[in-house]
Amino acid sequence: MDAKAAARDHLESRRQALIALSHRIHAHPEVGFEEERAAGWLCDDLAAAGFTVTRGVADLPTAFVARAGSGPLHVAFCAEYDALPGIGHACGHNMIAAMAVGAATAAARVADDVGLTVSVIGTPAEEGGGGKILLLDRGIFAGVHAAMMVHPAPVDIVEQPFLAAAQFAARYTGKEAHASAFPEHGINAADALTVAQTAIGCLRQHIRQSDRIHGIVTHGGDAPNVVPAHTAAHYIVRAKTLGELGEVHAKVVRCFEAGALATGATLEIAEDHPPYAEMKPDADIAAAYRRNATALGRVLPDLGPMLERLVGSTDMGNVSLALPAIHPMIGIESLPAVNHQPEFTAHCATPVADRAVMDGALAMAWTAIDLATDAALAARLRAPR
């Protein structure tokens, strides 16, 4: 039996366990850095499959590394398992986690035969925490030659555009006063935030079409008859590259500074984490994944110019700038529901989603085998960066 057939047979033998894992994580959503149950279930499954598991790596309690095989090419499958506040697994990270485990266990079945070392890297807090950035900075990806993960979406996309992104909190501090009797004694922090949002609205005429600015007010005041002394907002700024991100981010910060200047309130800007980088998929790994996904019957539509509109951000972008990586999307036939909608949450634990879990896992396992058995490609991936 050849390596790919052996990997497929092994994955098929674990079908029920992998689908149950996906559904269990889906039913118990946990937000970033609080994914205790999900991380534990993943580690338990991998340990039972014979992987050497290290929990709580890089001083992150819900991060882990699981490793098997001893081949010269080291391929890592990235698992995400955090949910969104209020709407659960509306980005399908339950599926991502199950696909990573499935791909790793299938590839591990033939790892020593084809020359692979296989890892699962458990990466917490993708939805606004930058877990992969922390893991990169703390050396967890050291020695990895290629990394991959597959993310659910309405349709299959091999090379999804991802924007660089920065998240920050803006807080204004003013001065309380009776809003009717003594308004002249107050400094209105809500007005400061209004000025900032108005300035951002004006700024939109002068940014690139590929830039994105969006946010929410997280605190607007405490009582209508008290001049608000404390307001806060949480914003995300995105651009095609880290370089372009720096430009538009500076402009947005000036809008918040304008609010402080106009009202006399003081402003504090707190960055959530280092910026997410743009995604740079490795062309050879992406081509291998495309061949394997097609061989499994996945339909890869030509989305044309629409693809440029289907943009998000991921800390996998930072990984892709540090080492060869891919981040394909796998379709779950969810339309009109799209990512980050409650309706999409429901689509991530269905028979269609379960089939995507198996297809995504096998396509990644086969891709890892291709990387190891293509001598020229394996040599390129192993070459010092």
Highlighted features:
four-stranded antiparallel β-sheet, Alpha-Beta Plaits, 13 helices, Aminopeptidase, alpha/beta, 2 domains, 385 residues, 41% helix
Notes on the protein architecture:
The chain has 385 residues and is α/β, with parallel strands linked by helices. The protein has 2 domains: 3-162 and 279-382, Zn peptidases (Aminopeptidase), CATH 3.40.630.10; 164-271, Alpha-Beta Plaits, CATH 3.30.70. Helices cover 41% and strands 18% of the residues. The protein is built from 13 helices and 12 strands. It has a 6-stranded mixed β-sheet, sandwiched between helices. Strands 8-9-7-10 form a 4-stranded antiparallel β-sheet. A two-stranded parallel ribbon has the order 6-12. A hairpin with an 8-residue loop joins strand 1 and strand 2 (64-69). Helix 1 (3-13) runs antiparallel to helix 12, helix 4 (93-108) crosses helix 12 (351-373) and helix 7 crosses helix 8 (242-263). The longest helix has 23 residues, at 351-373. It is elongated, with a radius of gyration of 23 Å. The mean pLDDT is 96.
